[in-house]
Each structure stands twice: as structure tokens, then as C-alpha cells.
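WARN retry 2 of 3 for item q-0093 after timeout on previous attempt; input resubmitted unchanged.
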Amino acid sequence: MKERYLLKPAEVDVFPLKSGTDVILRKNIAEISVKNEEGAGTYTAWECEEVQFRYPGTITEEEISTDFEYWFENGPKVSKGEDVDLSFEQMRNEKYAEVSAACEKTIYTGVDVTLSTGLEHFSLTEKDQINLFGKQAQLAAGAEKLEYHQDKQPCKYYSAADMQKIIDAAFFYVSYNTTYCNALNMWIKAATKPSDLEEIHWGTTIPEEHRNEVLLDYMEIMAGGSAEDTEATENGASSGEGTTA
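OK item q-0093 returned
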């Protein structure tokens, strides 16, 4: 909304109230010349884009100024009755939940593995992961063929070599995506303003400062990686450098 003032207005005005904080934000503040309608000549005024809203709590001018564009866009939605939670800590908790759900979905969806019989897909729900731990124990005991099945297919026997490929690819896939999720959570934890959180999504690039040593090791493995490791990430977060799941 365009507004006009005789004196140059501030970009941010906050007015604490018992029921919250009234906020007025202005941008593109420009000095203009206005024709005097009551006589000859012109006078100087200031024109700007302006929004107003009531924040349901206490917020300071500094907090608004630090993330001005976010508040200019999202603050007025509250006044329009839209369901917008402007509590930063609530936003942070919701982002944690969003990332956790995406990680679980990615892992449960599973992994493709190239075996001696061709490409097969294996889901990795918690039950599937427990079953694979059991298969690892069978291999350690010397089993030469092991019963298992790919998604929506009958159970069959796999050679020890093929079973080991399935287990290695599955465990790498689970471990990598769990590590990637941890790095996202540390990024969320470090966020200082709402717009920081808007940059964080499953599959996005992890900034270098939030790449932990374990993630860096996984990224190095994938850069030079084995076939199993490469396949294990094709359906997931893929790498700390950010392909969408």
C-alpha cells in the first residue's frame, strides 16, 4: 500500500501494547515533488510502500530490522486472518519436524542395488533394517545362500555375495541420510532469523560451516565411491551438496 508523509518516515515503527505489538514497516522511501492543489507551486513529500500488522507478542525494532523483508511479506498475513505462526522458536521446531519426516520417508522408500541378477529395489523400514541385521549375522555364521525378497516380489534365495551387496548398500544409505539429517538439524539450530529457516529443506546444499566430519567422509566416499555407495544415494539426499530426495 502506498503512503505519503510530509516528513521522512522511519523504515520500522513498533508500538508495544498489552495485547501484542503494533508494527509499521516501510520500504522504497523516496522524496517526491507534489503539486499544491490549493495554489501555485509544489511542495516536498515522502512516498513509500507500507504495511501494518499486530504481532501477537513482544518483538523489538532490532528483531524486525534484522529480517526486514521476511516481516514485510509475512507480517500482514496475520491481520488478514491467515494461519501464520510468527513465533521463531515454533518455526524452528516445525522445521526440525519437517526435516525428520523427510529423512524417515527417504530411508523407508529404500535403495536400488545392482546384483548378479540385475537391478533390484529394497525398502528400508525399521522392520527391514532389523531383518538385514539378521542376514548379516547369518553371513557371519557362514551361510552361502540366504532367503530375502525385493519390494513386492516373492521371497527367493540370494547368494552370499549378493546378500552382502544388499546389506552394504542399505546400511550406507541409512547411515548417510541420518548423517545428512543431523547436519540439517545443526543448520536449523544455528539459524538466527526466520528467513534463515526458509532456506533449509531436505535435499538442499549443506553450507560448508555445517558439514560435520562424518558427512565430509561420506561425501568423499561418494566422490570417489564404489558402485554400491553411489546407488545407495541416488534415491536419497544424494550428497551434502544438495539433490532433492
